[in-house]
UniProtKB/TrEMBL annotation:
It comes from Erythranthe guttata. The keyword Transmembrane helix applies. The chain crosses the membrane at residues 6-29, 72-94, 106-127, 147-165, 186-203, 215-236, 248-277, 283-307, 319-340. It holds the Pfam family Mem_trans. It is a multi-pass membrane protein. It is found in: Endoplasmic reticulum membrane. GO terms for molecular function: transmembrane transporter activity. The lineage of its organism: Eukaryota, Viridiplantae, Streptophyta, Embryophyta, Tracheophyta. Belongs to the auxin efflux carrier (TC 2.A.69.2) family. This is Auxin efflux carrier.
């Protein structure tokens, strides 16, 4: 597989994200008025509590079994490593930039928590469909790729709402019960996949309760376009300005997410492969590497909204991180594809 083919396979998914994100930003303009603040809030709630859990459930239930979990055990550890390394680097950014206390939780969160769900759910299927993809049959690639992305999304959500949520909460006296609801909405896919009796009832063309799985798939299909449109609308806040966040803080977060983390990720994942900790599956290895090179999780913006801490600053950080993601993701995806192919 040539370098040009790898570059094309990496570019197409990112372009798809940019196009849908751009549409979301356009719909959020005042003179258009389709995706205003209230509309984004309602769509975000529907996506968060209906579409995304349905997507995670349907994909995990279909592909997660005892055998597959035995092979995928390294992914939760890999994601935990991204949070730990990102937190340490975020602390370094705070010390160097002397960031104000009310932004410290935001900075650590942006450095620690990558967009482990939404972007992977877009990038992986797109890479699988490309002719130059090193992952074999597109249908098989997409089936397993979506399970990897869904598992990443579920684990990432648990870490995000258990860790980043509380880091931001420390600087605020308010509380929210949404975190309990969100974490609970992700337990079902694992249960269905891992319990043979339940799996036979729901999964498969002959399953008596297959309508439940079909309904979850139908709802889950709405998650990717909805969340990407909302992301585009939210980024418009950063474009409008209204924040005096230091450029050094933005540069520090961008450097951590797009330079330091991917390089550390290569060392960690390649080391795990070399010592036989990660099984010989190019697609799985690609996902593990990609988890180190993603922009900050968009749900960090939701957390700042819950506590009213650094909301405008978060919008500016997200704007720059996602603008630069088009270049960073393409470059790193090309390198990662070359490493695993």
């Amino acid at each position: 597989m040539g370098l040009v083919d790898l570059f094309i396979a990496s570019t197409i998914p990112v372009l798809k994200v940019l196009l849908v994100t751009g549409l979301g930003s356009y719909l959020a303009f005042d003179h258009v008025g389709i995706l205003g603040d209230d509309a984004r809030k309602h769509l975000n709630n529907i996506t968060f509590f209906v579409f995304s859990p349905a997507l995670v459930y349907s994909n995990l239930a279909k592909t997660i079994t005892y055998d597959s979990m035995a092979k995928l055990w390294f992914m939760p550890l890999n994601i935990l490593i991204t949070f730990i390394v990102g937190s340490v680097l975020g602390w370094v950014v705070i010390q160097i930039t002397r960031a104000p206390s009310h932004l410290r939780g935001l900075i650590i969160g942006c450095c620690a928590a990558g967009n482990l769900g939404n972007l992977l759910l877009i990038i992986i299927p797109a890479v699988c469909k490309e002719k130059g993809s090193p992952f074999g049959d597109p249908d098989v690639c997409q089936t397993y790729g979506m399970s990897y992305a869904s598992l990443s999304m579920a684990i990432g959500a648990i870490y995000l709402w258990s860790y980043v949520y509380n880091i931001v909460r420390v600087s605020s006296s308010s509380r929210s019960k949404d975190v309990e609801i969100i974490n609970d909405s992700y337990i079902a896919g694992f249960v269905v996949g891992l319990v043979p009796l339940i799996r036979k009832l729901i999964i498969g063309d002959e399953a008596p309760l297959r309508v439940l799985q079909d309904t979850a798939l139908l709802l889950g299909d709405g998650a990717i376009p909805a969340v990407t449109l909302v992301m585009g609308g939210n980024l418009l806040k950063g474009l409008k300005g209204g924040s005096e966040i230091r450029k050094s803080i933005i540069f520090g977060i961008v450097f951590v997410r797009y330079v330091a983390m991917p390089l550390i990720g290569i060392v960690i994942v390649q080391g795990a492969i070399r010592f036989g900790i990660v099984h010989d599956n190019p697609l799985y290895q690609f996902v593990l590497l990609l988890q180190f090179a993603l922009p900050p999780a968009m749900n960090i913006g939701t957390i700042t909204q819950l506590f009213g801490a650094g909301e405008s600053e978060c919008s500016v950080i997200m704007l720059w991180c996602y603008l630069l993601a088009s270049v960073a993701l393409t470059v790193w995806s090309t390198l990662f594809l070359w490493l695993v192919s």
